[in-house]
Amino acid sequence: MTWPPTDLLGAHVSTLGGVALAPGRGMAIGATAMQVFTKTPNQWREPVLREADVVAFRAALAGSGIRAVVTHDSYLINLASPDDALRAKSIRAFTGELQRTAALGIPWVVSHPGNYIDDRAAGLDRNARGYAECLGAVPGDVGVLIEGTAGAGTALGSTFEELRALRDALPAGLQARVGFCLDTAHLHAAGYEVTDALEAVMERFDRQVGLDWLKCLHLNDSKGAPGSRLDRHEWIGEGTIGPAPFRWIMRDVRLAHVIKIIETPKGDDPIRHDRRMLKRLRAYARGPRTNVGAPQTVGRA
């Protein structure tokens, strides 16, 4: 492996103490990509992003060697909610996420679809209209990466059909600003055959959604059984998914341009654990590459 690496691989890193500290934390773990929150994810309070913060972040990023950044929206946002007050609050909060992301010069906000609560079709419609309203309020290039979910409860977005439906429901002029993020642990929990037939899963995504719109992958092993709807992450190669699917992802040239972010457990030493997960994934990348992917059955080896 040459250094610095030419991949787009990293982790979700902390912005504690200010967003300008995130690139340095990414460098400390050997990342070439990173994901950050622009606010505390479990609070509604909207932070003030000062011009000095923006300038400091951009300068730190330029000197870091990190080649790709995405943000992740707040866990409280629910654009699919049937509750008018919560949905209005969510629209304001998501608009704020887009505004801060754009100010920092980051191209994408990763967003979990909401919980429909009452009726799935109505929830999809509300969620899509919410994305459209927020994107319309923040002109420019900043966009949304809709993340596939594990499908627990009334969560939307656990199927490729629903992911595509959310994008297709947007006005044509906004669709270019919407792509997708897939999470290996979420796919596994939602019942897709990640462990034994990952190439077939990705081919299905390509047919139903379009691989060109896959801009980010969250690489996480899972503590849960296939189809369990349990969203519990485990260290790469040490959970119920196993190492082989991650080896396939790291070697498939069709995915080389896709930003890859780990959200694996930090344990009692976040730097050490993130470093070893990235080192493991880069070791998986060593080996023959192909334009057409690995054999359809990737197994557990």
Give the helices and strands as they follow along the chain. EHEHEHEHEHEHHEEEHEH
**Would you identify the CATH H-level superfamily?**
Divalent-metal-dependent TIM barrel enzymes
How many individual helices?
9
Classify the fold: give the CATH topology: TIM Barrel
User: Judging from the principal axes of the Cα atoms, what is the shape?
Assistant: globular
- The low-confidence runs, each spanning 5 or more residues with pLDDT under 50, are 291-301
Question: How many individual domains?
Answer: 1
What is the level-2 CATH architecture name?
Alpha-Beta Barrel
Strand content: 5-15%
**Strand neighbour order, sheet with most strands:** 1-2-3-4-5-6-7-10
Overall SS class: alpha/beta
Number of strand segments: 10
Largest sheet data: 8 strands, parallel, barrel
What is the topological layout?
Elements: E1 9-12, H1 22-28, E2 33-37, H2 51-62, E3 68-72, H3 84-103, E4 108-111, H4 120-137, E5 143-147, H5 160-168, E6 178-183, H6 184-190, H7 198-208, E7 214-219, E8 221-222, E9 233-234, H8 243-251, E10 259-262, H9 270-285
Helix pairs in contact: 3-4, 4-5, 8-9
